[in-house]
Amino acid sequence: MTSSVVNRLEAASDVDAAIVAADLCYAYGDHLAVDGLSFAVAPGEILGFLGPNGAGKSTTIKMLTGLLRPRSGHIRILGMDMPGEREAIQGRMGVTFEEKNLYAAMTARENLRFFARLHDRPTFDPDPLLRRVGLIDRAGDRVADYSKGMQQRLMIARALVNEPDVLFLDEPTSGLDPVSARAVRAIIREEAQRGAAVLLTTHDMAEADTLSDRVAFIHDGRILVEDTPERLKIAHGQRSVRVRAEVDGQVEETVIPLDDDGADERIGRVVQRGGLLTLHTEEATLEDVFVAMAGRGLDA
What is the mean pLDDT of each run of 10 residues along the chain (300 residues)? Predict the structure, then answer.
């Protein structure tokens, strides 16, 4: 292990991080998918990994959960080395991947009981979890008959079977309707409040803004920046006022950047002109920040 990796691990240990990644790299053939990622997640914290498809988010989670071995770098989960102590770590983690890997021929109850046995919980009662994710009325149905959204909610329930100390969630609300997505976000917050360290990947900037204590922008396998959503929006975005007024029978809209010189005077002139319809302050979104830093949108 290099001295830089040791220093990063020691620094993370000073804040009692539950998840530590130091200088992680991974390649698919000649393509370097993850290029020197370093970060830490504390117990009770939600870190959002934000970036477009192909940015390296899912590959990073697969390394952290022991499914892929890094080309270089080091991982420590709950004070244990991954993959060296993989079995002990996996017993204390919960994981959902974007790809569904449920047993379609089993019912929801049977799926959860099966995974509970893998965690040595033979008396596990699946119904409270199924009720928590809104599936209790379909608990006896085969998963093959579930919609994509229902399967996603069952994946969330399965990740919580062992009351994990760390949660890795890959696009946790993918395929969910707005009501189900809101319920899943509430569950994620509850798990963090319980003390679990949560790492979630998403390309939904609004969701990350709502859920995350900190976010890390990932682009081409590298972290561009890492901070709280609020600080990122203030540091890299632009505040503005959007004014709509009726002038000579036509609705005109004016956007005035608040950080520009003379912004107060411009707003005053628009208001004094009369015909004011609406006046709204606006702040940058995480999407705006990402575009400013990466030079592209998530769907580009």
Answer: 43 70 96 95 95 89 95 96 95 90 95 95 95 96 94 95 96 87 93 97 86 94 92 77 81 77 78 76 76 63
Residue 38: which of 51, 17, 23, 16 has the closest Cα? 23
- As a whole number of angstroms, the distance between CA 70 and CA 60 comes to 9
Cα–Cα distance measured from residue 30 to residue 17, given in angstroms and rounded to the nearest whole number: 32
Strands (DSSP E) found in the chain? 19-28, 31-41, 46-50, 72-77, 80-82, 93-96, 166-170, 197-202, 214-219, 222-227, 240-247, 250-257, 276-282
* DSSP conformational letter for 240: E
Q: Say which DSSP state 56 is in.
A: S
Q: What is the pTM of this model?
A: 0.81
Sequence spans of domains, the chain? 238-282
